Amino acid sequence: MVDLDISKFQPARLIPVTGIKGALDQERRAASALLAVMQGVPELTSELLKEHGAFSGIVETFIEPEFKIDGKKVRPDGFIQITKGKKVWRALVEFKTGKSELELPQLNQYLDIAKQENIPVLLTISNQVIDATASHPTQGIDNRRLRSTKLVHLSWLKVITEAIILSEHTRLDDPDRAWVLKELIRFLQSDASGASEFNDMGPNWTSVRDSIRNGSIKKPDDSVVDIISKFQNLIRYCAFTLSAKSGVDATEVSPRTAKADGKKFLVSEGAILISDKVIKGTIKIPGAAAELEVVADIGAGFTHCRFDLPAPLEGKNKARLNWMLRQYKTTPKDAMLSIGYKRSRTMEDAVSLAMVKSGELELALDNSREIATFRIDVVRKSGTKRARGQGAFIDSVLDQVEYTYSEALQPLKSWVGAAPKLSTNVIDLLPQSDEGQSPSNQRIE
Length: 445
Prior knowledge:
Blueprint: H1 23-40, H2 42-49, E1 58-63, E2 67-69, E3 72-74, E4 78-84, E5 87-95, H3 104-116, E6 121-126, E7 150-155, H4 156-170, H5 175-188, H6 205-214, H7 222-246, E8 251-252, H8 256-260, H9 262-276, E9 278-284, E10 292-297, E11 302-310, H10 317-325, E12 335-341, E13 351-352, H11 353-358, E14 371-381, H12 393-409
Parallel strand pairs: 5-6, 6-7
Antiparallel strand pairs: 1-4, 2-3, 4-5, 8-9, 9-10, 10-11, 11-14, 12-13, 12-14
Helix pairs in contact: 1-2, 1-5, 2-4, 4-5, 4-7, 7-9, 7-12
């Protein structure tokens, strides 16, 4: 048989991205593709829904199931059923793709159907990302409808992230399922699918940014609160990106106040933005030596990505400093180092980490106090544009987060003290008696 070069042939695809005619067709294809793969790859279903009451079992998924309510026929986008013995878990699903947002009247109607049919969960999936308040992105949900039904939201970013972690890090034993999952990822990552990345700081970005810089804004109005929410979305997007690339569940750190009262938290953060001209967010990466803090200094136009590494609890200050420096085989050139002493509320002046590591700069240490913390801070000029692309704020923050983690935080390990030594002075816990009998054998008169 003559050899045939097939390297330039177009591979057959399980979920094609061509032929999508409009927004409705896009939404239906994305919904059908995800639901079908959730049935064929139940491990993905488990990863997406386990924290919402779903369990491992037989997964069945359906597209546009029909229900009747108040004499009208209503068709939600999807339905999921998981069975294990006599246990059953069910959810209605509503999808949106592209720039389409979830609609309040639609969700209220589906919540009524869920109550009528005794379905415990309404799952929504769209490009809207939940911020630090953990509130559903659709405002105005009637809380009375949530007494019997749990409203759960997943962004397409979350779906893609979990699929990538499962495919590239956890990995599936079944090669057919692994291939199906890769086809879903390829489809969702294409522009045609409508499952887009976080790519816009919103229409208020430019005006709020400029008003913060010139001091013309005095109170945290709706536009300021919107930017705070968008920044929290960006922090979650950065966490998703770290998760997909590291294989661990990196998450944004949500303050207690954000979960207790979301609106109050956003207004409070808006007031800080106006007074201090900064917005902050924090990412927790399992296994990392510290949490990564992102501080956008809107007034100065710079972004700080930094973390505080606890110093060893023993040894002289020089030894503690060397312990940290030795962990860097290569030193990030634009990272700054500052130290914090025990019982001090402020950090010392920052110096170049690379210069201290190379010996070009001798760090002056106060040996009358103990070093408690090392702060590593990567500072770069922020992008200014609201949308993704060259010169964009989003891209500049994401690049800086990835760089700071991989070059500055990832090489470090937390300090672990030596194991306690046994004393040679203590020979027996219960010394033997003079007669050579153990205490348990002696008679007590």
